[in-house]
C-alpha cells in the first residue's frame, strides 16, 4: 500500500511539474491586454466567445466514455500505404517573378508564395499534435515535402488558433529566427513571447481587423471554434479565419470552424475568392458546432464565393473516429451536387493559382488498386 501511494504521489508531482514548467503550454495575456479585450463584444469574464451559441458541453464522464472508442485499433482511420508525396527542393522556392502558389504539408499547414513573399500558415511540422508523445498518434507520412531547415527565409507566419495541431512549439522554436513577422488572433502573442519571439514582430488582430503589409492585405475573420493549450485556459485566446489579398489573388483560409452565418458574411465583405482552403476532417456528431462535416464544408465554400476550394484538416493525423478518407469522399460528392468546384492536391504538390486546378487522380486510394482512376474537376 505504501508503494502504491508513493507511486501515485510521484506521478502527481511529475504531472504538476510538467503542466507548470513545460514550455509547450505557452504564456498568458497580461492584465493590460485583458482589460483591452473586455471592450470587445465577444469577450466577457476573461474568455472569448463565438458569435452564435455553440455547444461545448461534452462533460468529463462523456469524454471518458469516448476514450475506448477513440483509441480503438480501427485500420480505416489511417492509410495502410505510404501516401504519395512530392518533395520540394530549396532552389525551387526562390527566384524572381514566381507565380502565386502553395505547398500543402497535410492537415492545415501551407507554404504560400504570393507577391514575392514566403508565408507559412499554421506551421505544424512535428510528428505528433500533442504536448507530449505519450498522447496522440503519429503523422501518416514519414517525411515532409521539405524540412524547416531547408525552407527559404519566411516573411510571415499566419496563425488561426493555438491548438496543438496548428500551433506547434517545436516548429516555432526552429522557425522564429528565420521569420520576419508573425500574425495571429488576439491573445496568442503571449505564447510566442514566452517562446522568445520579440513583441515587435508579433501582430495580433481581432475579428474583422485588417492590416496592410508588404503589398498584401490581411484580415482576420470569424470562425466558430475555441482555443486553449492547458487544462484551465480554454477560450483564453481568440481563434479565426484569414483573408489574404494580393494584387491579383484573393485567398481564404478557414482555420477550424463549425458551420455558421459567418461564412456568408465573409463572402459578402471580402469575396469572391479565387482559392479557398476549407476545414474538412476530424468531425463527430458530438462536436458538430466546432468542426464542419464534409457536406457543410462544400456549402461554406459556396457561401464565401470561392471559385475553387480544397479540403484541409485531413490526410496527416487521426483526431476523430471517422475513416481517414471519409472527409474527401463525402466532400467531393456534395461539391458536385451543389456545383462547387473542388481541388484535391497531393501533399507537396505545387498549387499554382494561375493554372486550371484539376484533381487528376484519387491519390488517397492505394495507387496500385484499379479504383485509383482519373477524376475530373467537379
Automatic annotation (TrEMBL):
Recorded GO MF terms: N-acylphosphatidylethanolamine-specific phospholipase D activity; zinc ion binding
Residue spans crossing the bilayer: 7-26
Residue ranges of every copy of the Metallo-beta-lactamase domain listed in the record: 118-314
Gene Ontology annotations for the cellular component aspect, listed alphabetically: cytoplasm
Gene3D superfamilies linked: Ribonuclease Z/Hydroxyacylglutathione hydrolase-like
Domain of life: Bacteria
Pfam families: Lactamase_B_2
Claim: Flavoprotein is one of the keywords in the record: no
Keywords: Membrane, Transmembrane, Transmembrane helix
Protein name: L-ascorbate metabolism protein UlaG (Beta-lactamase superfamily)
Native organism: Algoriphagus ratkowskyi
Amino acid at each position: 500500500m505504501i508503494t502504491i501511494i508513493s507511486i501515485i504521489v510521484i506521478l502527481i508531482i511529475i504531472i504538476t511539474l510538467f503542466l507548470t514548467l513545460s514550455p509547450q503550454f505557452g504564456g498568458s495575456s497580461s492584465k493590460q491586454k485583458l482589460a483591452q479585450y473586455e471592450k470587445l463584444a465577444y469577450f466577457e469574464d476573461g474568455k472569448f466567445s463565438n458569435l452564435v451559441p455553440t455547444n461545448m458541453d461534452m462533460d468529463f464522464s462523456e469524454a471518458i466514455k469516448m476514450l475506448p472508442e477513440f483509441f480503438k485499433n480501427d485500420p480505416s482511420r489511417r492509410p495502410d500505404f505510404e501516401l504519395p508525396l512530392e518533395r520540394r527542393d530549396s532552389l525551387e522556392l526562390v527566384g524572381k517573378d514566381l507565380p502565386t502558389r502553395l505547398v500543402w504539408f497535410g492537415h492545415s499547414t501551407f507554404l504560400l508564395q504570393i507577391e514575392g513573399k514566403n508565408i507559412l500558415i499554421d506551421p505544424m511540422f512535428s510528428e505528433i499534435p500533442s504536448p507530449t508523445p505519450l498522447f496522440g498518434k503519429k503523422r501518416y507520412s514519414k517525411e515532409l515535402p521539405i524540412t524547416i531547415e531547408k525552407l527559404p527565409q519566411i516573411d510571415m507566419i499566419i496563425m488561426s488558433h493555438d491548438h496543438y495541431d496548428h500551433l506547434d512549439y517545436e516548429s516555432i522554436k526552429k522557425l522564429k529566427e528565420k521569420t520576419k513577422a508573425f500574425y495571429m488572433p488576439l491573445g496568442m502573442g503571449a505564447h510566442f513571447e514566452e517562446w522568445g519571439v520579440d513583441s515587435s514582430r508579433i501582430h495580433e488582430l481581432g475579428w474583422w481587423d485588417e492590416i496592410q503589409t508588404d503589398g498584401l492585405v490581411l484580415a482576420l475573420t470569424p470562425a466558430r471554434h475555441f482555443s486553449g493549450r492547458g487544462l484551465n485556459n480554454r477560450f483564453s485566446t481568440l481563434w479565426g479565419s484569414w483573408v489574404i489579398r494580393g494584387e491579383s489573388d484573393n485567398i481564404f483560409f478557414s482555420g477550424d470552424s463549425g458551420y455558421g452565418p459567418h461564412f456568408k458574411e465573409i463572402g459578402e465583405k471580402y469575396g469572391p475568392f479565387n482559392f479557398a482552403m476549407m476545414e474538412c476532417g476530424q468531425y463527430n456528431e458530438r462536436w458538430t458546432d466546432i468542426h464542419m462535416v464534409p457536406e457543410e464544408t462544400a456549402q461554406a465554400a459556396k457561401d464565401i464565393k470561392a471559385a475553387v476550394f480544397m479540403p484541409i484538416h485531413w490526410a496527416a493525423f487521426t483526431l476523430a473516429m471517422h475513416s481517414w478518407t471519409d472527409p474527401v469522399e463525402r466532400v467531393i460528392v456534395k461539391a458536385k451536387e451543389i456545383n462547387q468546384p473542388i481541388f484535391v492536391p497531393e501533399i507537396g504538390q505545387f498549387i499554382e493559382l494561375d493554372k486550371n486546378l484539376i484533381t487528376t487522380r484519387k491519390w488517397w486510394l492505394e495507387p496500385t488498386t484499379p479504383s485509383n482512376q482519373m477524376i475530373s474537376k467537379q
